[in-house]
Design a protein that fits this description.
Blueprint lengths: L9 H8 L8 H11 L12 H8 L3 H15 L3 H35 L3 E6 L2 E6 L8 E5 L7 E13 L1 H4 L5 E2 L18 E2 L4 E13 L5 H5 L12 H30 L4 H15 L4 H18 L2 E3 L3 H8 L2 E5 L10 E7 L2 E5 L10 E3 L8 H12 L4 E4 L5 E4 L2 H12 L4 H7 L1 E6 L7 E8 L2 E8 L1 H4 L3 E5 L5 E3 L2 H16 L2 E10 L10 E10 L4 H12 L3 E5 L4 H11 L7 E3 H6 L2 H8 L4 E3 L3 H13 L4 E5 L5 H6 L2 E5 L5 H6 L2 E3 L4 H42 L7 H12 L1 H6 L23 H26 L5 H22 L15 H19 L1 H7 L6 H12 L1 H13 L4
Parallel strand pairs: 9-22, 9-25, 18-21, 22-24, 23-24, 25-26, 26-27
Antiparallel strand pairs: 1-2, 1-3, 3-7, 4-5, 4-6, 4-7, 8-27, 10-11, 10-21, 11-12, 13-14, 15-16, 16-17, 17-20, 18-19, 20-21
Helix pairs in contact: 3-5, 4-5, 4-9, 5-10, 5-25, 8-9, 8-10, 8-24, 9-25, 10-24, 11-24, 12-13, 16-18, 17-24, 20-21, 24-25, 24-27, 24-28, 25-28, 27-28, 27-32, 28-29, 28-31, 28-32, 29-30
Bound molecules: adenosine-5'-triphosphate.
Adenosine-5'-triphosphate binds next to helix 13, strand 16, strand 17 and strand 20.
């Protein structure tokens, strides 16, 4: 048995894996991928199309109908039996296509949401889908990364891992790459290894992959799936229930109709087939699939607008969102930091230039000339306590890698002629404390000849209290007295008011990273601008119009935050709450305050959870963005957790319901718009479907109660169901959004989809249809026409009424004549159905099974005239809705 990865010296293990410290070559990686297969846990294969198709027949009603039909064929009703079979097959096929598409759409989503991983190949760091990792690959690990495979650490700095998913241990475990462990060390004690399925909470490291897919520790105990969950949405669950009670109610009515029919002496098998056909028609069995399709299709549209949904239920919640809490940096702003001003030893330095191009003059108090020593020291220190680098692409574009705040410091240093790579070679880094949003500071320790020194940079109020000395204009240290402290704080405030993010930089001689907590020498301040995203301003406006409150959450100073928020239009009343104030409040006080706060500043990730909870207690439906590991709890708690596709950590993405592929605030608003549209369409579909069913069932029940013949045959009723439930209903599910969709308040989540206006429309449409058809049938019967002529007229009238309703129900409030033909799918569907209708009425092979007759023109006039009355009835209902009476 080969020796375990953790009990070998690193070099020997690398040899054994055929790996090097600059990573595999692309060619080798590709070859290995062929050999080892994708890095993916084996999950249950998705349902095969055949299985899905077979499931469509597992419907008691359909089975009974089929059996009864076969029976009736033997009793001499062969032609009707064939017609029924054909229609049922079509209905089943339609159901299958719907479910298959839904399944495929969800599968595609799963693939899109698949995790990515940072690897080093050919000496370059790059992102690849975690699926493509192979043994021997080098993976770069940073706080917030989900580990995609098992690996042995070859480098680690303060790396701490959350291994709870694997070992159950809730405390983070410290990693150490330098140790070699004895064989048989338990998984939880393998300090030099990282494992698939766990995540980094702190520090960074590099590991060589030792096992992928089912060969990882995780694969061995397998089970957890990294994929989009296909749980049912609240609406789906609700509709399942509604569907079940409707089915029960419908069945009772059907039983009554059949019972009365038998009592009145109709042939048993005929009335039975009729009853079951009616039940098949009115039980809304397609409901769940259509809802899934609407959701899934909507989700595909969202991806085109850069919003990737990771959980279907969130699509519905989007439509009821009342508050969006958004991070500032990168989401509302461009995250392209540029240092504009420095403040060193009482000197104000302006920095020219924009973006990452390292060109621009540094001017002291407005004049040019040689930069004094302390300014040079500030720039050098800023580039040293820093992990970002600047490069020029072959096309001549300047590109950064690393954190934009740090990149801004690198660019500023380059403008003064200091190259970060030279500096980092000259002053080797020997220790570090990485930046975190909690401490808001970062420390690095460097060696210079025989001595060592530490550099600390971070938020001024975190750094300044630890400083006891400061640099003077000649570069000497002097005591930092209260008046200079005040001056510095005043500068911080002034820079903040100009929307600058301020970083303070300090140093300490001969210090390790751990003890650079006090006695620091203050070097200076750097103020950088991060311009707001142009499109965010517009999106903020749209939010407000849509009754959604945009709230900014930022780690930045309140003054900076206020300035940026004002520019974006988020700050209207001027309510800013700082992290320290949140800490001083209990949950109740925070709840009261949160109702009107527009900006939360200087907050840490743990405040975010409290903010979400406070808002939710106030009855808000909260969307919240987050990118770091520590944001995960807030993202989970929020009604819609939103993660970042570009800058976010894998852990935050997994905790979220939606990922912004472009990290852009306006994408959230676009997603909400889509969410509202999807919800609207499901509602339209539902109104149409249920109203049609009420019309059909009402007609039959009415005729039975009146003791008159049944107005439709089994074949006809099945056809009406296929024609209306089928294409037109589907077309409504993809109806274009109404223009006022972002001008009305969010959907009320408590009220659900069955709002009063919706019920009113459904009932008005259904009952009027019943009435018109009963009257028409009775009149036709007594007008000297035969029963089958009267039935044909009723059949055509019912179908036409449903088609008119499809157009009418495209809006709850707007009248039907506003862009009536905007939905081209609906137009096509109706056109097709009209052709079919004409064929059923006129083509001889069809008239026999359908029991129709060729209607003369005058009958058409009567039927169309009667059917058209549905339009004013629904329009009047809409008018009552608009005027607030319904
Ligand atoms: P937002 O929450 O809007 O996205 P943010 O997450 O960028 O803002 P933090 O990253 O928590 O906010 O930054 C808070 C403060 O920490 C900044 O105002 C700055 O003073 C300081 N800071 C940010 N980045 C660094 C860094 N790399 N090194 C040292 N200090 C930093």
């Amino acid at each position: 048995m080969p020796e375990a990865s953790y009990s070998q010296p690193i070099e020997k293990l690398l040899d054994q894996l055929g790996a090097t410290r600059s990573g595999l070559t692309e060619a080798e990686a590709a070859a290995r991928l062929g050999r080892y297969g994708p890095n993916q846990l084996q999950t249950a294969p998705s349902a095969s199309p055949w299985k899905l198709l077979a499931e469509q027949f597992r419907n008691v009603l359909i089975i009974t109908l089929l059996i009864a039909t076969v029976l009736s064929a033997f009793l001499g009703h062969g032609i009707e039996a064939v017609a029924i079979l054909v229609i049922v097959l079509f209905a089943v096929l339609l159901g299958f296509i719907q479910e298959y598409r839904a399944e495929k759409a969800i599968e595609a989503l799963r693939q899109m949401a698949a995790p990515a991983s940072k690897v080093i190949r050919d000496g370059r760091e790059q992102m690849i889908p975690a699926l493509e990792l192979v043994p021997g690959d080098l993976i770069a690990i940073a706080a917030g990364d989900r580990i995609p495979a098992d690996g042995r650490l070859v480098e680690a700095v303060n790396l701490r891992m959350d291994e709870a998913a694997l070992t159950g241990e809730s405390l983070p475990s410290e990693k150490d790459f330098a140790v070699t462990l004895p064989p048989q060390t338990a998984v939880g004690d393998r300090r030099n290894m990282v494992f698939a399925g766990t995540s980094a909470v702190h520090g960074r490291g590099i590991a060589v992959v030792t096992g992928t897919a089912m060969l990882t520790e995780f694969g061995r105990i397998a089970g957890m799936l990294q994929r989009v969950e296909s749980e049912k949405t609240p609406l789906q669950k609700n509709l399942d229930k509604v569907g079940a009670s409707l089915a029960r109610a419908a069945l009772v009515i059907v039983v009554i109709i059949v019972g009365l029919g038998i009592v009145r002496g109709q042939p048993f098998i005929e009335i039975l087939i009729f009853g079951i056909a009616l039940a098949v028609a009115v039980v809304p069995e397609a409901l769940p699939a259509v809802v899934t399709i609407s959701l899934a299709l909507g989700v595909q549209r969202m991806v085109k607008r850069n919003a990737l949904m990771r959980r279907l239920p969130a699509v519905e919640t989007l439509g009821s969102t009342t508050v969006i809490c958004s991070d500032k940096t990168g989401t509302l702003t461009r995250d392209e930091m540029t240092v504009r001003r420095l403040y060193v030893a009482g000197l104000d330095v302006s920095v020219a230039g924009s973006g990452y191009r390292p060109e621009g003059e540094l001017k002291i108090d407005g004049g040019s000339g040689e930069l004094p020593q302390p300014v040079r020291e500030l720039l050098q220190a800023g580039a040293l306590c820093n992990d970002a680098t600047l490069d020029r692409s072959p096309e001549g574009e300047w590109k950064i890698s690393g954190d934009p705040t740090e990149a801004a410091l690198v660019v500023a240093a380059r403008k003064a002629g200091f190259d970060e790579r030279d500096l980092r070679n000259r002053f080797q880094r020997i220790d570090e404390q990485p930046f975190s949003s909690e401490t808001k500071r970062m420390t690095t320790v460097h060696r210079s000849d025989a001595t060592t020194f530490a550099i600390v940079k971070g938020a001024p109020e975190m750094i300044l209290p630890a400083c006891s000395l400061a640099l003077d204009a000649s570069g000497q240290t002097e005591a930092l007295d209260d008046s200079s402290r005040r001056d510095i704080l005043e500068k911080v405030e002034l820079m903040g008011r100009d929307a600058l993010r301020v970083i303070a930089i300090a140093r300490k001689e001969g210090s390790g990273a751990g003890d650079a907590a006090d006695g620091l020498v203050f070097i200076g301040l750097a103020g950088m601008i991060d311009p707001p995203r142009e499109e965010a301003k517009d999106a903020v406006e749209r939010c407000v119009a849509a009754g959604i409150r945009p709230v900014m959450i930022t780690g930045d100073h309140p003054v900076t935050a206020r300035a940026v928020a004002r520019e974006l239009g988020i700050l209207r009343k001027g309510n800013v709450l700082a992290g320290v104030e949140i800490e001083a409040m209990d949950d109740r006080a925070l709840g009261e305050a949160a109702g009107s706060v527009e900006v939360f500043a200087r907050v840490s990730p743990e405040h975010k959870l409290r903010i979400v909870e406070a808002l939710q207690k106030n009855g808000e439906v909260v969307a919240m963005t987050g990118d770091g590991v520590n944001d995960a709890p807030a993202l989970k708690k929020a009604d819609i957790g939103i993660s970042m596709g570009i800058s976010g950590t894998e852990v935050s993405r997994e905790a979220s319901a939606m990922t912004l592929l472009d990290d852009n605030f306006s994408t959230i608003v676009a997603a909400i718009e889509e969410g509202r549209g999807i919800y609207d369409n499901i509602k339209k579909y539902l109104t149409y479907l249920l109203s049609s069913n009420i019309g059909e069932l009402g007609l039959m029940a009415g005729a039975t109660l009146l003791g008159i013949p049944l107005p439709l045959t089994a074949v006809q009723i099945l056809y009406v169901n296929l024609a209306t439930d089928g294409l037109p209903a589907l077309a409504l599910a993809v109806d274009p959004a109404e223009p006022d969709i972002m001008k009305r308040p969010p959907n009320d989540r408590k009220q659900g989809i069955f709002t009063r206006p919706m019920m009113a429309l459904m009932l008005a449409g259904g009952l009027w249809s019943m009435l018109v058809n009963l009257v028409l049938f009775e009149w036709a019967r007594h007008s000297g026409r035969s029963l089958s002529e009267a039935m044909t007229m009723t059949f055509v009238s019912l179908v036409l009424i449903q088609f008119f309703k499809a157009y009418n129900f495209r809006s709850e409030r707007e009248h039907v004549f506003r862009k009536p033909f905007a939905n081209k799918w609906l137009n096509l569907a109706i056109l097709w159905e009209l052709v079919m209708l004409a064929a059923i009425v006129y083509v001889p092979v069809l008239t026999t099974p359908f029991g129709t007759f060729a209607m003369p023109a005058e009958d058409w006039v009567i039927v169309v005239g009667g059917a058209l009355t549905i339009v004013p009835v629904i329009e009047m209902t809409k008018w009552l809705i608009r005027s607030g009476r319904l």
